[in-house]
Amino acid sequence: MSFFKQFGELLMMGARAHAKWELDTSRTILSDKRRMAILGLLTIPIIIGGFAFAEDIKDALPSLIGGKEAYNPAFYSPAIFVISILIGVGAGLITGCIGAGGGFIIAPALMSAGVKGILAVGTDLFHIFAKAIMGSVIHRKLGNVSVPLAVVFLIGSIVGATTGGYINRVLYELNPVLSDAFITTVYSVMLGFLGLYAMTDFLKARKIGKAADMHGHGGPKRDEGVDLGGLPKKLQAVKIPPMVRFDHDLAPGGRGISWIFLVLSGALVGLAAGIMGVGGGFITFPIFVYVLGVSSMTTVGTDILQIVFTAGYAAVSQYAIYGFIFYTLAMGMLLGSLVGIQVGAMVTKVVPGITIRGFYAMAVLAGFVNRIFALPGKLGGMEIIPISKETGVLLDKIGVWAFFIVIAGFSIWVIGTFFKNIGAMKGEEV
Hints:
Low-confidence stretches: 52-75, 211-229
Strand content: under 5%
Strand order of the largest sheet: 1-2
Order of helices and strands: HHHHHHHHHHEEHHHHHHH
Number of domains: 1
């Protein structure tokens, strides 16, 4: 039980840290006219291609997005562009309002809409990379980045991202259904664990009347690094050269850790990014702070750096050059998430923290139900488990409907709350 609690806290901490990066990036893009102009230019081909030439190219593309062949960039129809915007809005509302992990629903949502798993992962990575480049605030954070720490970590993340992308591509070439089943299983485990922890935490908080607001708590309060069981101290005591020094402002001579642990940590982050998408940022923060003992200030800057390079490398080298990125979907999700995050963040000013925690648990568990209900049909299609095709399709539909009902219900509630309290929120800002 202790392991469950500690691991759940680590995942939650990482989800909050990644959500904070999403919010900061969104604000940076929306507050800069040049960035907005660039974003507008990037969407022009989609609009022209979707509306002017949709009929001409419709027959040339597969009936299901991401069929046996992938297209990059792809123009399918105005409808799918709108759907991608709505998916982005939903993810953005969760991230902005709850302050944790809205990006976790993107791949399940795309797969539920008919996108092959490998295409969903590649598209999600490209969407994160585009957002990171457009909203990059690295130049503002460089004072908090240990360059040696970042470089050695990125060596590991590149190796991990290459491995993750290779695994996904090999499985897809063997059998597209096997690829979908693998990605679905990974998401089921991660979302199931995180959702169970979040729901347990919510019920416990409601029982004791503790309405602590989880929004905005992107990391630990202590700058010296928090250790669980003294793990950071033990790792930093291992003197396998070369040693990488960091946090010179917080300790005489700085702290040091062997390059081996940095490379292994980077490899884990890269592997998660290569297999799942989501940039890997959701596990960088807890690894740096709780495992390696890096200060939260240095971690924030390094996390921003690794998201740009890890997501960019994985998106381009492991997916884009093989055609596994749906450009139209990526840009639609980027547009939708920018708006959703800002609306969600404003709603937190008028909604009790305990309510937000409950919604987060429901959203994550909805993603878990969506993926776990899709799994039997895929396993049955490969004849791994005895299940009829009709039963598999029925379970998949139940998972899809349950997922979209929860996400749509949450989105409608947030948007309704936003318009209902817009006057109060403006007054609070003033």
